[in-house]
Write a structure and sequence with these properties.
alpha/beta; Rossmann fold; seven-stranded mixed beta sheet; 7 strands
């Protein structure tokens, strides 16, 4: 796998660690895969603080997807840049039409641990290439998950991808985490993804401008590390995490945006 693909092991490790600790997220599949994969992570990439952050980010996405499925049960779920994530199992969405999409090398690795069903499909594709849309069903509604993906796409690439998806479906709900331009600049100095070879990332300056003139509306900014999840940590860990990943500096670096058409 290339350097961008290898970044999937950072959130995988985070989810496995918090699951083992019994906080934030229960993800036995992540524990199983991490034990078998044995991928070497070093430095900040294997920090427990980052693991807590990865677990919280995934828990927030899980809750949002569950809410959207409840509101619109006939929706197709598209998890773009899925990596080795087990979200469909975590939220119990086996009866929902669901596509996990990622590069061919990632999907090949994913097939070692997951099996397709009547409702669940794994799709090997470059999401920057609109050709993959031909494989998706012609549903009216789609729920799109972009977790840990936008920072590897230029603003032009991201905007085109969002437009392609919005043109495909009559109603599209999107949740997307992203770097700010400041975070993208700071990543040249220190960023966990550098540990797996990624040297270029991108940030979004204006959440409304990125979807201008395409029919998608910016709904709101979500909290990546909500207090109810921070409260699952104990004592000094809770206080340190809040300073490192939920304080003013962190909020200048990472954002979580919701869109809808």
């Amino acid at each position: 796998m290339n350097s961008v693909n290898k970044t999937l092991y950072i959130p995988l490790y985070g989810k496995a660690l918090v699951s083992q600790k019994g906080v934030i997220l229960t993800d036995k599949k992540a524990e199983e895969i991490w034990e078998k994969a044995g991928f070497p992570l070093n430095g900040k990439a294997k920090s427990k603080w980052l693991a807590y952050y990865m677990g919280m980010r995934s828990a927030v996405f899980d809750a949002w997807v569950q809410e959207k499925i409840t509101e619109n049960g006939d929706s197709v779920v598209l998890h773009l840049g899925c990596g080795l994530d087990s979200r469909i199992a975590r939220i119990g969405a086996k009866d929902t039409t669901w596509y996990d999409v990622d590069f061919e090398a990632v999907i090949n690795e994913r097939r070692r641990y997951y099996e397709e069903t009547a409702n669940y499909r794994m799709l090997a594709a470059d999401i920057k290439d609109s050709a993959f849309l031909q494989t998706l069903p012609n549903a009216k509604r789609a729920i799109m998950i972009l977790e840990g993906v936008s920072m590897y796409l230029s603003n032009a690439e991201l905007k085109q991808m969002l437009k392609n998806l919005n043109d495909k479906f009559s109603h599209l709900s999107v949740l997307m985490d992203c770097y700010t331009p400041f975070a993208a600049k700071m990543s040249k100095i220190k960023n966990p993804v550098r540990g797996v070879g990624v040297t270029t990332v991108y940030g979004i300056e204006n959440p409304q401008k990125i979807v201008k003139d395409m029919g998608l509306k910016f709904i709101k900014e979500h909290e990546l590390t909500p207090q109810y999840l921070i409260d699952q940590l104990q004592g000094c860990e809770r206080r340190l995490f809040k300073t490192l990943y939920a304080g003013k500096t962190s909020k200048k670096l990472y954002k979580l945006y919701e869109y809808e058409s």
